[in-house]
Amino acid sequence: MKKVFKAFFEKFRREKAERPLSETANTQPSVEIHPLKKSERIIEVQGLTKVFDGVTVIDNMNLAIKKGEFVTLLGPSGCGKTTLLRIIAGFETPTEGQVFLENVNVTDVPPYRRPVNTVFQRYALFPHLNVFKNIAYGLKIKKIDKKVIAEKVNAALKMVDLEGYGHRDVSSLSGGQQQRVAIARALVCEPKVLLLDEPLGALDLKMRKDMQEELMAMHKRLGITFLYVTHDQEEALTMSDTVVVINDGVIQQIGTPKKIYDEPANAFVADFIGESNIISGVMLKDFCVRFLGQDFECVDKGFAKNEKVDLVIRPEDIKVYPEGDEKGQLVGKVLSSIFKGTFYQMEILANEYQFTVQSTKESKEGDTVSIGVKPDGIHIMKKLRSTNTFYGKVTGEDTVEFCGTEFTFNNVDGIEAGTDVEISVDFDAVSLNDDETDGDLGGNVSQTLYKGKYYQVQVYTDTDEDFFTDTVDDWDINDRIGIKIDHSKIVVKRLENEE
Amino acid sequence: MKSKKKLRLSKGTMAFPYFAVSVLFVIVPLVLILVYAFTDASGNFTFENFARLGAASSWKSIIRSFLIAFFTTVICLLLSYPTALALTKIKASKRMIILMIFIMPMWINSLLRIYAVQLFYADTLGMEKGFVLTLIGMVYDFFPFMLLPIYTILADMDKMVLEASADLGAKPAETFFKVRLPLSMPGIVSGALMVFMPAMSSFAVSDILGYDGGSATFLDGKLFGNVIYYYFERGNYNSGSALALLLLVLILFSTFLSNVLTKGKTARKGGTIA
User: Fold this and answer.
1) What is the extent of the structural domain holding B168?
2) DSSP state of A29
3) Which element (helix H / strand E) includes B71?
4) Which of A201, A460, A466, B3 is the most exposed place for a label (fewest CB within 10 A)?
5) Distance of alpha carbon A41 from alpha carbon A44, whole angstroms
């Protein structure tokens, strides 16, 4: 089941470019900006929003980047990371918000006057110029002395290991060589920040690995700030000092690669970074969490008593013991076991949850085993949401309109018609139907997330709203379905007056 | 293997109608022109027909034809490039409609279009027939042939390359002259050839819109195409063929020249006519 979900999720990631969605649509980012001194901030965006044709690609984003760091913007395609980079480079104007370079507001400065240079996804070399002239382009524009240009270009060629290629036609170079020319062309201008937009996306695996190392070495040697965009989580974890995980135009987490991996801020980050088992649970008290019907010791605290939480367990943190071993906490059955070179990847069903487990010891398919997790192998995350919130209007004595549909509700507060209101609908008040006409309104399934025993499903309505609900069934992405709401569970509140 | 052989045979068979048509209407007339050019009225081999080329009137008509073709090309280019550039900036949905408006005249017979020019400029506005009106007619006639290749190359141009130029510090004007214009050369060359060559050999436009009375200035005189037409009309196929052959050589030479001039400077993208 989990495999199926993964496949859907992959598909969803690919198709997402059309409209960004996620389970975190309306939540505030859980940002942990390390307090940067003003002089340390090389790039900063404040309240940044970008809307393309009515679709919000970047949603009120705040971010500060430290001078000299290798920072990666990581997220699925369509999450807004490339748009953010293009706004920093100056190719797009933000709908709202400001961009600062070295604490100078550059929001309205055209790209040719910004002290940054970009390495483009598909190289974007000038096809009518040879390698030397491509690299010299930026220096020539600056009207630098010809001799100096020749010196700098030759030094740049040497740096990217392309000495003697100056006279070559760019189309005669391999993909890797073209990418190196693109990097040299940007670096020769000595930018304050080098922006890289998925620069290794078009290269084959081996070339990627080589270029990753070269880029890291270059960053170390030059001391320039690198801002790197990628959707490849492995690349991000390998190369960066700081990773910024973005989804749906909202920053999900900022941190070192280790922190992002070990302590994902929410279910999205946990799922996006590496393989993980994401389970819903209840925090009974500090250092004690209950999930899959059992109590577990953990290392997290500070949650409310009985607060619903998401928790993540990495596949390598699950220990497999023989049947009956006392060290195990759950009894499971091995569904599959695949040898992956240095470990066995197993799917183990325990208490109705299918765990993905990586272990150096093999267990055979069909074996009954005992599995256990050490307290520090369980990472607790705040649940992002358990209610849907909408804005609408009361239309009558006991009717309210939201998402383009009228609903009856229990008007206990006696809210008069015409009042703008906030409507909350709990996840469990929402049910999904195969037939659109069986629901109160129609929508398309845009994401499903396996949470153990149930799926969290996100449905995108025709009125550009997102509905979330937990169901036991898995739904196909893009399926047209009906959303049914239990009218007695609709909670309507007056909007606070802003005057 | 067997099926492959069969396929090839059928492909060859399919090409036969085209082959037959081109033999009948291209190869045979070319051979006839060649034969007529080197024979006299009674069918004997001679270079006599080419002697007429030395006459001042022939040279003058060649120069006139060249000048009018040159001006037509330059004006078409100056009109087309900004138009094509503006077209690429319009929203894709509206773009096709506007492009259609420019292309639609191509669907109407060119003779009709030329008569329309006569009707409007000469008969209604009272403009004198001559060099200027001929030029207007030519520009009107050939404009789409310049617009289309330039539009195609501008629309297909990788925007990233233009952004890269801005990223490296080039102001919009610098980006235009250093990147956009060089990269649109194939479209410009192809458009220029498609306008220059038919304009050079044109005779219908100048026949209808050219000067039609008494003495005239140098520019108002007959074009090369009209001279050839003049000979054919009077049954002098030998002299007409000789001049036609010369025109053919001149056009081939100019095509060759433009290919040499732009070689190595053009991107692989975009069509050339040859």
Assistant:
1) 57-262
2) P
3) helix B56-89
4) B3
5) 7
Instruction: Write down the domain spans for chain A.
Output: 2-115+191-271, 275-382, 387-494
Edge-to-edge strands, sheet with A250-255: A116-119, A193-197, A225-230, A70-74, A242-247, A250-255
Helix (H, G, I), strand (E, B) or coil at B111: helix
Distance CA A229, CA A79 (A): 11
Assigned fold of A387-494: OB fold (Dihydrolipoamide Acetyltransferase, E2P) (2.40.50)
What are A339's two structure tokens? Answer: 């040898």
Distance CA A34, CA A64 (A): 9
Q: Cβ–Cβ of B161/A126 closer than 8 Å?
A: yes
**What is d(CA A437, CA B112) in angstroms, rounded to the nearest whole number?**
60
CATH code at position B226: 1.10.3720.10
pLDDT digits (tens, 9 = 90+) for A243-259: 999 998 899 999 999 98
Whose tokens are 């990581």? That residue is: A74
Burial of B104 (0-12, 13-18, 19+ CB in 10 A): exposed
Residue B86 lies in a domain: yes
When divided into structural domains, chain B yields a total of 1
Whole-angstrom Cα distance, residue A17 to residue A348? 34
Tell me whether B160 touches chain A (CB under 8 Å): yes
Which residue in chain A has the smallest CA separation from B166? A112
Report yes or no: B157 at the A interface, CB cutoff 8 Å: no
- β-pairing, A405-408 vs A399-402, is antiparallel
8 Å CB contact between A252 and A245: yes
- In the predicted model, residues of chain B with pLDDT beneath 50 are 1-4, 264-274
Q: From chain A, pick out residues whose CB is under 8 angstroms from the CB of B184.
A: none
Amino acid code (one letter) for A99: V
Q: Which of A272, A242, A307 is nearest to A24 (CA)?
A: A272
Contact indicator for A283, A289 with CB cutoff of 8 Å: yes
Give CATH for domain A2-115+191-271.
3.40.50.300
CB of A199 less than 8 A from some CB of B: no
For A256-292, write each residue's pLDDT tens digit: 999 898 888 888 888 888 888 888 888 888 889 999 8
Residue B30 C-alpha, separation from nearest chain A C-alpha, in angstroms = 39
Contacts of B55 (CB under 8 A, 6+ apart): none
